[in-house]
Specification:
It contains 3 helices and no strands. It is an all-alpha fold and 97 residues long. It has one domain. Helix 2 crosses helix 3. The longest helix has 37 residues. It is rod-shaped.
């Protein structure tokens, strides 16, 4: 090797090491770095919690739909509760609130 290239042999790895030691923390603490990662991780937790809640709600609604398709008692219960329907021989008492 020539005398000109000898200092570059150790200088290049040293320069890369120094650059890495400086740039990695700067990039991690940048607005697009670690704080963004933590914010996205929190958002992911909230979205997963919402998905679980919605999944339970869909399951409950599916059960209700299946009951309305196959169970006459469920249809009657819905008609009484939601529509206020009564049978011909029943008397309804209403109390003021």
């Amino acid at each position: 090797m020539s005398a000109y290239l000898r200092p570059l042999v150790w200088l290049l790895p040293l320069a890369l090491l120094v650059t890495s030691v400086v740039l990695v923390p700067v990039r991690m603490l940048d607005a697009q770095g670690l704080p963004r990662y933590r914010a996205l991780k929190d958002e992911l937790r909230h979205v997963e919690r919402d998905n679980e809640r919605l999944s339970r709600e869909v399951t409950e609604l599916s059960r209700e739909v299946e009951a309305l398709r196959s169970d006459p008692a469920a249809i009657e219960r819905l008609a009484r509760d939601e529509l206020g329907m009564v049978r011909a021989n029943e008397v309804v008492f209403q109390f003021p609130e």
